Amino acid sequence: MDGTDLAGRPVTRPRVPAWPVLGYYLTSYRRTWRSGVFTSFLLPLLTVLGFGVGVGAYVEQGVGGVDYLDWVVPGLIASTALQVAVLESTYPVYSGFHWSRVYSGQQAAPLRVGDILTGHLAFVLLRVLLSTTAFLLVAAVFGVLRSGWALAVPPVVVLLGLAVAAPVFAVSAVVPTDNHLTILFRFAVLPMTLFAGVFFPVESLPVGLRGLAYLSPLWHGVELCRAATLGVAPPWPLPGHLLYLAGWALVGCLLALRVFRRRLVV
Amino acid sequence: MTGARPLIHARGLVKRFGDFTAVDGIDVDVRAGEAFGFLGPNGAGKSSTMRMVGCVSPPSEGELRILGLDPVRDGAAIRARLGVCPQVDSLDPELTVRENLVVYARYFGIPRRVARQRAAELLDFVQLTERADSKVEPLSGGMRRRLTIARALVNEPDIVLLDEPTTGLDPQARHLVWERLFRLKQQGVTLVLTTHYMDEAEQLCDRLVVMDGGRIVAEGAPRALIERYSTREVVELRFAAESQEKYAGMVAGLGERVEVLPDRVLLYVADGDAAVAEVHGRGLAPANVLVRRSSLEDVFLLLTGRTLVE
């Protein structure tokens, strides 16, 4: 509703209300981006050297005929997306409700709960995009990108980021203390990172565990990234992987909106 | 301007949280240009009322119109015209003073250039210009509160809502905040504030409601309320510890009313000095005697039997 107020002054509201919310996070990020950029490049560099070159030397036959370094890097890119997405959706969201109370400040402005959530999620996805792009550039330097399809990695990791960040937003909004967030890292992020096909193919897992890997959003992200950088077809038909991730993203967003509303509109 | 239509109009307004009723059917009208107060102790339902008026908390029952609009349907449009200074601040301590204002102005769709200019004016108004580029984190409580007030003004609001604007501030910081709020009031800004400080209510409010247990127990101008519910003067008598009850009986009949507090006896009288003479005439020697004018604190005590600040 625009127009004028009772005193005849124009009522101003942002055209896209989530935009200034994203603007807030960018203003905050501006304070730390320099050190952030440094680690964004350094971390992939060290992991590529450590896992690819170091561990890779012991995996002489490669994986399915592919050099271990070429095989593991797309997995590491997807797992970086997971780490950043979870890190940015746990403590910052918890803080928005309990410490900085930034959400209640935003709520007093003409923003709706959906705008507050969208703006913050957009920032998380931007962070995911930036760190994985940095990783992709390092990978390009090491010559491990074997196909032009590598350009599909950024949109894939953004989808993976949303599939992970949205449900984690919901979790961070409902946990009673920040200690509960460590459970998420121990029982979701860590096992996913280890067993969802980042470092070795899930086919090496016992059948039962393999099912769990298929359920994790990370495995789908890993396989899509790997298919892209190697220029091969993913294990499932492409729409299958994409729809599975989109399902996590959609359910996650609906859940997050629901719990954000329940927390803020009381 | 608005004619007779009140900016805030509430009838039978109720807020429940599960089984607990925080606001229990209140009627309120706030007119343009008024400084209106909700006075009451902690837990009286003031903050819950403010959150409903601020369109972030839907009423459980009753009628509420802000600027003539329905907060549930037009919440965002109403909030575009409100300025809110919450009890617990939600400033970003990592951003600078100026950045906090500019970022917040952007939430209202104010162009960046205008936002910067307005931030500079408001920082001047709340006397924080010198700290504009300092982070919020090291600021004192009083400075943070002034910054929050500046933030509440960034959209040139029709109504400014202040929830306990000086709670937790030292006396000097409180006076600085009062002085700024008084200036806003003189500029004709409609102020709505909650407080449990009677001096704050007396100084700032044209009209107020006294709240207790989610209900309004009295309404009027501060002076009128005092005249209506209390006597002109009050004599405070402090007797030896644990003996207030005993002496209260001995001074009964000296005034219109006697109130016994844990540490003193209050005597409500028209003429304080005469009453003190009478107390001494009865052979009583209280450890301490104070004669003062009646305040809103007395109104609250007389209406509810309890003190505002415990």
UniProtKB/TrEMBL annotation, chain A:
The chain crosses the membrane at residues 37-59, 71-94, 121-145, 151-171, 183-202, 242-260. Keywords: Antibiotic resistance, Cell membrane, Membrane, Transmembrane, Transmembrane helix, Transport. The keyword Transmembrane applies. GO terms for biological process: response to antibiotic. It is found in: Cell membrane; Membrane. Residues 35-263 form the ABC transmembrane type-2 domain. InterPro entries: ABC2_TM, ABC2_TM_bact-type, ABC_2_transport, Nod_factor_ABC_transporter. It comes from the Bacteria. It is a multi-pass membrane protein. Its main location: membrane. GO terms for molecular function: ABC-type transporter activity. One of its GO terms (cellular component) is ATP-binding cassette (ABC) transporter complex. Belongs to the ABC-2 integral membrane protein family. This is Transport permease protein. It comes from Micromonospora rosaria.
Automatic annotation (TrEMBL), chain B:
It is found in: Cell membrane. One of its GO terms (biological process) is response to antibiotic. Pfam families: ABC_tran. GO terms for molecular function: ATP binding; ATP hydrolysis activity. One of its GO terms (cellular component) is plasma membrane. InterPro entries: AAA+_ATPase, ABC_transporter-like_ATP-bd, ABC_transporter-like_CS, ABC_transporter_ATP-binding, P-loop_NTPase. It is a peripheral membrane protein. Residues 8-238 form the ABC transporter domain. SMART domains: AAA. Keywords: Antibiotic resistance, ATP-binding, Cell membrane, Membrane, Nucleotide-binding, Translocase, Transport. Belongs to the ABC transporter superfamily. This is ABC transporter. It comes from Micromonospora rosaria.
